[in-house]
Amino acid sequence: MQRKFYVRAFIIAAIFLIASTFYYLPFYVSKPGMAKELEPIIEVENGYEEEGSFMLTTVRMGRANIYSYLAAKFNKYHQIHPEEMIKSPDETDEEYNVRQLHLMTSSQTAAIEVSYQKAGKQIDYKYKGVYVLNVFDDMPAAGKLAVGDKIFEVDGREFESSDQFVDYVGGKKAGEEISLSFERDGKTKNVSLPIEPYKDNPEKVGVGIMLTEDKEVITDPEVTLDTEDIGGPSAGLMFSLEIYNQLTEDDLTNGYNIAGTGTIDPEGKVGRIGGIEQKVVAADKAGAEIFLAPFEGGAEESNYQAAVTTAKDIKTDMKIVPVNTFDEAVQYLERLEKK
């Protein structure tokens, strides 16, 4: 009888433990991810080889269950984030993932633009439309459009950029309607939506969507990027450096393993990212010798300052380098002595 009691108790406990792993709290937990070499996933046609490596760094992010939440409480480089700080209101996990992947695509496009222009190479564009990144639940697009929809016409017009789209819609008056043609799951759909003022900014009107461009970059020589399911815009700086290095004869790595992070815009400005501390930890574990961090114009609480603090805390020999722009990063690397 006693043996049966223990067996039942064990089974009940096991069921509870398994079930509790699928009970999610209204938080996300982030922790150090990986530092991944870029040469195997970026290929410039007939590009130059490099002796060292450029590496992107990532943060692992997931919804918190009770166990990951408790583990994060006792691990300095695991961070807990309220759900509303990670996702937009009413945004599903699928929509969040789609948004992150589109941000990654935009980051790749900007990196290609910056690196090819710096190398003096040919670059052209084919504009395809705009992707929906977010839909506001209190605006006309709610329930009509979804994250990932590609809008290619407004009132029968095609546009050359997302700015033209925004300017056209923003020039309408509240109460007017616009007709959108969009693609979802390979099928073309049409919808008419009224223009309304935004609740938090009544002077601004629209249908309640956040957008990103769907723009094909045509290059000579051709470049391909295989980033799989890596999301977000924070690898922009490192993408641009890897592409530029393959385009030019002189090897910017000079034999070093160089990690880093930072967004990049088409003008080459390096922007702030999240999770810098965790990315420093990931880079150190991967054996990086140099880490490039956004300097943000020398701001007191810049990514660079946080990276320096983390590097001291984990007692790494990795050198933390501040950068404001792509050009600054290139100039620093050009001055490195060969390893």
TrEMBL record:
- Annotated active site residues, numbered on this chain, are S234, K279
Q: Catalysed reaction per UniProt?
A: Hydrolysis of proteins in presence of ATP
Give the Lon proteolytic domain ranges: 228-336
The EC designation for this entry is: 3.4.21.53
Q: Where are the transmembrane segments?
A: 5-25
Q: Name one process (GO BP) from the record.
A: protein catabolic process
- Start and end residues of each PDZ domain: 111-186
Q: What is the name of the protein in this document? A: endopeptidase La
Its organism's taxonomic lineage begins at: Bacteria, Bacillati, Bacillota, Bacilli, Bacillales
Q: Which family does it belong to?
A: Belongs to the peptidase S16 family.
- The entry's keywords: Hydrolase, Membrane, Protease, Serine protease, Transmembrane, Transmembrane helix
- Please give the organism: Bacillus canaveralius
**Molecular-function GO terms, alphabetical:** ATP binding; ATP-dependent peptidase activity; serine-type endopeptidase activity
Instruction: Give the NCBIfam families listed for this entry.
Output: SepM_fam_S16 (NF041438)
